[in-house]
Amino acid sequence: MSGETGSTPPKRPVPGPPRGLVLAAGAGRRLGRGPKALLVREDGLTLVESMVLALLDGGCRDVTVVTGACSEQVARLLAGCDRVSVAFNPDWSSGMGSSLRRGLQAIGPGPDVMVTPVDRPGICAAEVARLIAAHRPRAITAAGHCDANGSLRRGHPVLFDESWTSQAAAAAHGDVGARDLLETRRAVVDLVDCSDLDDGADVDVPEDLHRLTVVSSRD
User: Fold this and answer.
1) Which portions of the sequence form the region Disordered (predicted)?
2) Is there a domain that residue 208 lies in?
């Protein structure tokens, strides 16, 4: 016995690696080449495969991919991938908000979660690792990218501390995901400059295809 009469207050457990969440349910109608998740890059990887690898190689413990349009093809593509699970969103056509809610529901309460849509071809493992290293407890950490005027703009990925995931799910609606939460809670959002790694651009319409070399859309 040490003879101490007091007790040490419990500490918040040190969080483990975050869980990764890829929103890959859209049909890609504006692009006109089928679901963006299935677009094939010059290196032979689909966008969904490259995003999963970036999250895992960057330090996420596992990855959940939310599917919708062409869900069977995406699930088949990822079948057998280690530390990857698929969650189907039956309401995928209502917008990204329902996919964010579905993904967070599939992951469940507890862990920090790093979220990204599938159509950000520049996201890489180094960017994911930088966000994880910069993350503070009870904060939201987002990648920032410089625009044409040199201003740092919030982009993806976004790392939600476990204390914010339920609010992110509640705030998600339409096609804006958790944007409203990020705007109203700016004080807890840390922007990490990743402009040297990624320009933050997405692939949304045919004019955006210069941002990646598309070989085909995999069946």
Assistant:
1) 1-21
2) no
The overall average pLDDT reported for the chain is: 86
Provide the CATH number for the domain around residue 92. 3.90.550.10
Residue ranges making up the domain that contains 162: 19-203
Q: How many domains does the chain have?
A: 1
213 is a domain residue: no
CB-based contact 158:140 (threshold 8 Å): yes
4 domain residue, yes or no: no
Cα separation, 166 vs 109, whole angstroms: 8
What average pLDDT does the segment 69-97 reach?
93
Which of 129, 155, 125 is CA-nearest to residue 142? 155
Residue appearing with tokens 């890489």: 124
**Beta partners for 189?**
140
Per-residue burial over 101-124, b = 16 or more CB atoms within 10 Å of its CB, e = otherwise: bbbbebbeeebbbbbbbbbbbbbb
Does 14 reside within a domain? no
